[in-house]
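hey can u check if this looks right to u? its 414 residues, i copy pasted from the old doc so theres a chance i mangled smth
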Amino acid sequence: MKRRAPTFVKRLRGVALIEALVALLIMAFGMIALAGLQGNMRRSADLAKQRGEAIRLAQQEMEQLRAYSVLTLPSTPPAGMKAYADIITADVVPDAGDPDSNATFALTRTVTDLVGSPLKAVNVQVNWRDRANDLQFVIIDSFITGADPRLSGALGIAPDGTPLRRPGDRHTTIPVEAKDLGNRRSALVPSPLATVAWIFNNLTGAIIGRCTVPMGTASSSLTAASTGADVAACSYNMSGFLLSGHVRFSFGDTPSAEQPASYALPNFDMEIVQADAPPTPASGPAPARPDAPSYQCFDNAPVDAAFLQASVAYYCIVFPNTDATPNWSGKLNISGIPLTGELRYKICRYSADYDGDTLITNLEHPLNYYGVTGALPRQNFLVISASANCPDGHRVDPAAGLFSDTKTVLHQPS
């Protein structure tokens, strides 16, 4: 007997084939899209490589133009010498890239001289066609200055002072009270009772001369004529280094280094004595104790205790030795202030590791100065009662409004 299939089974015949064809069609569209994406990725990667090579070629051209060694070529220049005057517009270089590259790069250089300025405006452009034959390019613009290459030797010279603007456009160690004479010199009368004026070199800060002036002459009244014709009579008749600072006083039970409020003691002097023997190095012989230098000091200490004066300023000129690099060594003390007896004091010095190098250098006011080769400003002292201790002060803390280090240490004990 034969059995017939149901009607709905007949209707399902061929459905699986249609579904397979639709799936195949969808997959074909996806593969076509993927193939296009891969093509775009290959083109983008290729273009990135070409763009990097084009930038390298443009930068190389610019740096070669900067590598000139003279402003103009001599009549018989050596091979390979380049001159600033030869930086001019050049013809197109049709094949500037690597011969193994997958693109051909054309380099164009355009140079424009700027009128009234020692500059040349340089435009370097690199063109090429990518995988799709589209035109691509990179451009670098810059300026090249006509500075004499021999001036590059100045880069080996240590800068003078700091990059900050100097007071009065002169060396920072020159006292602000010194009068600028207008000829790269400044003059200072170190005390109202002094009969000398010191002449400073504005560039180096060194004292290069000494003139005789009437007692009571103010620094502000000095001119080039008053200290010799064009300071010629006073310049370079001696040489020395400035040593200067202030002496302050705080006689309370708890002395203050920040705000010392006592009045100055009268009739004392600054003196430079022989320094202690330098520390013995780890290897080698012990160094000899240096001789005390010649010097001359002035201060404005009151002549009587009745003169109520908050601080005393002092200026010393120290004459260095005759070594190949003139220098001096010594110890700066205060004489005339009683350190023994019933009424006695202690002398502290403002000193700390200001630059953080773990050393107390000459500029940071050590107990002994060794090998000083320049001016030493701001070598300050604090005089306190013998029963008190030198105040610790505070470190620099701009956030707290503290802009100076006021630490003190014992200098001359009672």
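The radius of gyration is 40 Å.
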